[in-house]
Design brief:
With 170 residues, the chain is α+β, with helices and mostly antiparallel strands.
């Protein structure tokens, strides 16, 4: 599918916006986006994908972690218009009730959450970590997940869940 924007599309864009084509959870959309809109705000307010959480809004907690072209990023730090043509995966795009992603199942099996606020970012970060193929040991997973904070302290169970999935894929 072409992501080219024709002159009719430009004419329909409000002044002060940038036409941006994104594939979000498998659905391609061209939107008029204000240049200062973060990916986090676009997902939560523009797309009603509220699984991605707004924690610190400064890239320090990881609650807003999503996957962009398979790599994990803090969506609060990324301007949406800079991602033209990118594929974004949020927690909603990983699995659904009745058809959970292996990481979602492992988080449930290992009781890897308490309040659940950080869980979507933890799971997206874990999937990015798995995509990177760098983590094989408890210490490596701990280090590579260190940008995702859990205020409830479920770190041991989170690491167990991630290692469970990594072990199943090895």
């Amino acid at each position: 599918m072409s992501t080219a924007v024709n002159s009719a599309t430009y004419a329909a864009m409000p002044i002060g916006t940038v036409p941006t084509t994104l594939t979000i959870n498998g659905q391609t959309r061209t939107r008029a986006i204000e240049p200062w809109t973060t990916l986090l705000d676009l997902l939560r307010e523009g797309e009603d994908l509220i699984g991605t959480k707004k924690g610190c809004d400064h890239g320090q907690c990881g609650a807003c972690t999503v996957l962009v072209d398979g790599r994990r990023i803090n969506s609060c730090l990324k301007l949406a218009v800079t991602l033209d043509g990118a594929e974004i995966t949020t927690i909603e795009g990983l699995g659904q009730p009745g058809n959970l992603h292996p990481l979602q199942s492992a988080f449930c099996d290992h009781d890897a959450f308490q309040c659940g606020y950080c869980t979507p970012g933890q799971i997206c970060s874990a999937q990015g970590l798995i995509n990177e193929g760098k983590a094989r040991t408890r210490d490596e997973v701990r280090e590579l997940m260190s940008g995702n904070l859990c205020r409830c302290g479920a770190y041991t169970n989170i690491i167990d869940a991630v290692l469970d999935v990594i072990g199943d894929q090895a």
